[in-house]
Amino acid sequence: MTGRVDSELRATPSARIDEGMVGEHRTVRVIRDNGLVVADVSLRGAALLSWRVRTGGGDLDLIDGYRTSSEIDEQAGCRSAIMAPFTNRIEGGQFTFEGQRATFPVGESPFDDGVVLHGLARFLDFSVAEVVHDKDATIIVFRNSEIRPNKFPGYPFAIDLAVRYTFGVYELAIDVIGTNVGASTAPFSAGWHPYFRIDDTPLELLELEIPAATRVATDENLLPLPGAAAYVPLGGASDVFDFTHPRYIGDQMIDSCYVDVRPSPDGRVHTTLTDPARGLGLDVWQERGGVHAYTADALERDPRRSLAIEPVEVITNAFNRSDQSAAIRLEPGETRTFRFGVRVTTDANDDPFHLKTPLPAHTPEELP
């Protein structure tokens, strides 16, 4: 397939795929189990535009994604951005890798605003490569092969990308898969930049828990401090940035990366956002890496109406840090997958909507 969904793959008794448009941008809509879940993905950047699930209390709107064609064009807020081949910022738009100096033309397309951040995938149009339905989930794989040395002067490497969405009823899993198709080792990292909400509950009334021991300290440009100074142990209840145990966000401004994360017995790292009054929450999980949290204070539309919980493989400015050099190496012919997701949680003891039954794990070899 080259972007269109084949007619025989559009529908099963439990799921349907529709094609749509947001202005000039093509989208794919997933409808499962008679509307228990409805999700929209833009082919520009393979970005999740919306994710709505139905519970006994009504429909829940859980993602604050792009709403208009102009927001997609401008990448306003980098909403739901699939971040690859780098995450967050690159200092000065420059880095040296394996003795090769690379410089992005800062102030020119695609980084017209002079800040090189959140990768290149968000500027690219993906194609629909595969659609699979079964009784538990709908899987859609998006692909792009445009990251090449002559495409982006600041990134002289060749990377094929795949983004695999797995939509269950109350859980969404994402695999970002990067393959180095070039002849030399490439720097590569991946992440996701979603803004979560629990319907219209104000951010101040939500509880956040991040199972991390360390926060990354940054300068006025939101770049990590040099060397070991970047890593600050969290200080307990008196530390306003310590969310090791659930605490209300309140009026706290957050734009921080958390590392030294603690996996749960299932091997995953679980960051939770909860509405205690409603007994509902979101469990944002990832298989490795760190967690960047941002209270959306600087968004042009709806500031502080959502919380960015960003699974990231490495910290900001990793391409310029010796302590991240091993983590970003992608050898010629090598494929690396970063897997993460989110599921709806409930306090209900009887779990009538099966919210506590996670999607099955998949290995990279199982990817369509």
UniProtKB/TrEMBL annotation:
Q: Name one GO molecular function term.
A: aldose 1-epimerase activity
InterPro entries, alphabetized: Aldose_1/G6P_1-epimerase, Gal_mutarotase_sf_dom, GH-type_carb-bd
Note down the stretches annotated as region Disordered. 349-368
Pfam families on file: Aldose_epim
Biological process terms from the Gene Ontology for this record are: galactose catabolic process via UDP-galactose, Leloir pathway; glucose metabolic process
- Official protein name in the record: Aldose 1-epimerase
* Native organism taxonomy: Bacteria, Bacillati, Actinomycetota, Actinomycetes, Micrococcales
